[in-house]
Amino acid sequence: MGRPDEIKPGLVQDHHATEILYFRISSEAECDGCGSEGDDGRSVGELLLPQYALATGGLAKDHRPLITFPDNNNFHLLSASEYRRLLLYLTSVPSLLEAEMGFHIIIDRRKDRWNSIKAVLIRISEFFPGVIHSVYVLRPASFLQKALSEVSSKLFKEEFRFRVLVCSCIEELYEHFDRSQLTPDLGGELQYSHSEWIQQRIALEKFSTLMKDISSKLDEFMHAIVDCDMGNDPTQTKELLDCQETRYKALKTELAAATTQGEELLTQVRKPNLTYNIISHVAAVERLLVQLEETERQFDNFWQKHSTKLNHWLKFRTFLLNFKQMQATLDNHLKAACDMTEVGETAVRVESLIQEANDFEKLCNCDLDTASSVIDDGEKLMKDPLSSVDHIESKCEELRRTSALLIDKIQKRNLLLTKARELMDRIDKANEWCATGVEILAGEGGLIAVDKLLEDAKSFGLTAPEPFRDMLLQTATQETRALVAQVAQRVEDVWLMVSVKRASLQRAAAKPARPVQSVPPQSASVPPQPEQNSILL
């Protein structure tokens, strides 16, 4: 039996055996103004007005709720189906805990006949939607009916499955009920207003119906998102997450609006002139609000778990997509690096290849940084308890391996081109040296020029032809081997000729110079005078 102040939790499972909580707010009957016409007879709202039976909110001393059949001489106008509809509603008014304890029933027939008591008891025995603890009968007060009841009550007490206590006066009720729990017509102090009670039940039923609608929406939403395909494409998953999050926020807005409406209703029933039955409505609204709060809390918990799972799936699929893209990119770079075998046959070509290699390295470095970020994302993802660590780790390791291979290829390519440039530099300097040597050999350059030429050869590693040839061949490739051999031969030829010239110049410099005899001019033109002639003078 559902009741307007009760939210019933339940469990459902998806095909992955994931348990989620959902909530069903049900009301078997609705009050006038928000109810609907039954299949047979009058609606609940119409049945409440004549006061065939009442749920005033009173409790027995054992705290069980009370249902009263007042002495209005109109119970015979109630059909069997209408009776069932009315009792279904009235027994749903108390809280679930109170209803499970069972009900006390008071049948007031002090102004009626004995047969009317029996008619009510038979109806109750045929149908009552709850546990009956005791039935208290206020028997007819007229002399004849009292006499009949004294005789008949002994006979019919054994006919019913519930305990029947026949009271000759209302004072006997006080043994089981406090007067504050009984209405004035039963000698009590509970100032019950039936019209006020109905109006507040209408408000309660409307609020209950609102909560029932929200509950159905929550139930439908949670079943839908649990069973949904999360997709393998990150774009599709992101759109799904955004769509579900929008729906979640809309339902949260409805829950907030319902809470506001419930708080307003609580303010309305909390009026200064409260009677006990109104207090029971306050308690009913408070229970609804507490249950609504619990509903929202569990809905938030469900969404937190689901959105976490969906966000993780989005990150995982994004990681896999990024992995595939980066793996394909790095594989293409690796293939391109493997195809880069040319080293160039001229210095200009080598410089061009070095520039291409630098540009390629910059491009690769950008993608290698991206690959490193993908690996970082994978490592963070592996820390998530929802992750398949082995699967993600294998992808990260594959990216690391490909990245390392590409870096190694780039480094080897750069080293090869660096050596090629050094080779070309030596070849250019060797050619220049050979040209200078030919000029010295063809001219009148002396020993100083030759020694300077041999000294300059050391700047590009030439100290002797054979070691120089070996050095060039060590860095030569298949493409440059012929060029290296040609240059080495030329260097050897020039070196040999220069060495011969140097030796010749050194020998010439080592020969001593012949002495030259000088003749005075006068000795050649005037012969010397005989010494005797000078003596004679």
Automatic annotation (TrEMBL):
Question: Entry's Pfam families?
Answer: CRAL_TRIO_2, Spectrin_5
UniProt xrefs under CDD domains: SEC14
Q: Where is this region: Disordered?
A: 510-537
Where is the CRAL-TRIO domain positioned along the sequence? 1-194
Concerning SUPFAM superfamilies, the annotation shows: CRAL/TRIO domain, Spectrin repeat
Keywords of the record, alphabetical order, are:
Guanine-nucleotide releasing factor
From which domain of life does this come?
Eukaryota
Q: Does the keyword Ubl conjugation apply?
A: no
Q: Where is the composition biased (Low complexity)?
A: 515-526
Protein name per Swiss-Prot or TrEMBL: CRAL-TRIO domain-containing protein
**Source organism of the structure:** Iphiclides podalirius (scarce swallowtail)
